[in-house]
Amino acid sequence: MKQILLSATAVLAMGLTSCNGQQKQNLETKKEEKMEISNKEKVVALLKSIETGAQEPVGYINQDNYIQHNLGVADGLAGFGALLQQLPPNSAKVNTVRAFQDGDFVFTQTDYNFFGPKIGFDIFRFEDGKIVEHWDNLQEKPENPNPSGHTMIDGTTQIMDLGKTKENKQLVENFVNDILVNGKMEKLSGYFEGDNYIQHNPQIADGLSGLGKALEYMASQGIKMKYNKVHKVLGEGNFVLSVSEGLFGDEHTSFYDLFRVENGKIAEHWDVVEAILPKSEWRNDNGKF
């Protein structure tokens, strides 16, 4: 009888040990899950590290495969590091205002002091949780708001209508191709709710009326703005970013346009326009797009 009791006690002890071990493993698993961050959070942390000098976020980049499309920066992780080395000490400031995720892509809108005050859009592509490719567009930050009192970054940041991402992306792609690429101005009003259109371009006032006046002025000055090709359309919910190539004046230009869609109409617009470096000045061979 004593042997049976000892055996039972041993089995119980083994069960408790196993149970405690399983509980510990479950806690460790939950801790790991809690520590895992989204790709969007990785990008925001990486951009902030330009200001803070934090080393950990650099680990979110695939050190063996990092394709750089900023033409002023050499390819790979070494190119990114060399650029940071050129920054004057304690000069960088980074405030990411909006961040979005579309599949393997994360795109952001950021208020920078990066070799001077700038507004920028960045796009990062992920593979297996690591950043493997980067595109961007940067524009000098104006000192004053636009004619309607808006800056290049203010306005709502709330992401809504996640279930409408696909149709909102299609709407924006159609708009850019119809109006900006092909010049089908007879279709313009169909993309807006009357004159309700908030504009963050530093030179243009709100509404279709403001856009019309700006286009008339550019035409009177002989300034040509022409979109030739749409390269990317990315979106999350009610926000959609289009990446296009064209001409502004006589300069080969990259256009990044962020649209907010509301009830199937374009309601708000932010953009960054950057001249594309001549090929003789490229630091990598990946191309802008």
Task: Describe the model.
By secondary structure, the chain is of the alpha+beta class. The chain folds into three domains: 1-36; 39-140, Roll (Nuclear Transport Factor 2, Chain: A); 162-280, Roll (Nuclear Transport Factor 2, Chain: A), CATH 3.10.450. It is 31% helix and 31% strand. The protein has helices spanning 2-35, 39-52, 76-86, 165-181, 207-220; strands spanning 67-68, 93-102, 105-113, 117-127, 130-140, 198-199, 225-236, 239-248, 251-262, 265-275. It is globular, with a radius of gyration of 25 Å. Mean pLDDT is 90; it is low at 1-19 and 27-34.
> DSSP strand (E) fraction?
25-35%
Secondary-structure-based class equals alpha+beta
The CATH first-level class of the largest domain comes to Alpha Beta
Helix content: 25-40%
CATH architecture of the largest domain: Roll
Low-confidence stretches: 1-19, 27-34
Overall average residue pLDDT:
90
> Based on CA inertia axes, which overall geometry fits?
globular
N/C terminus separation: 81 Å
How many helices? The count is 5
Number of domains: 3
Main-sheet strand order equals: 1-5-4-3-2
Q: Might you state the CATH topology name of the largest domain?
A: Nuclear Transport Factor 2, Chain: A
What pattern of helices and strands is seen along the backbone? HHEHEEEEHEHEEEE
Major sheet attributes:
5 strands, mixed
Q: Please give the radius of gyration in angstroms.
A: 25 Å
User: Could you tell me the number of beta strands?
Assistant: 10
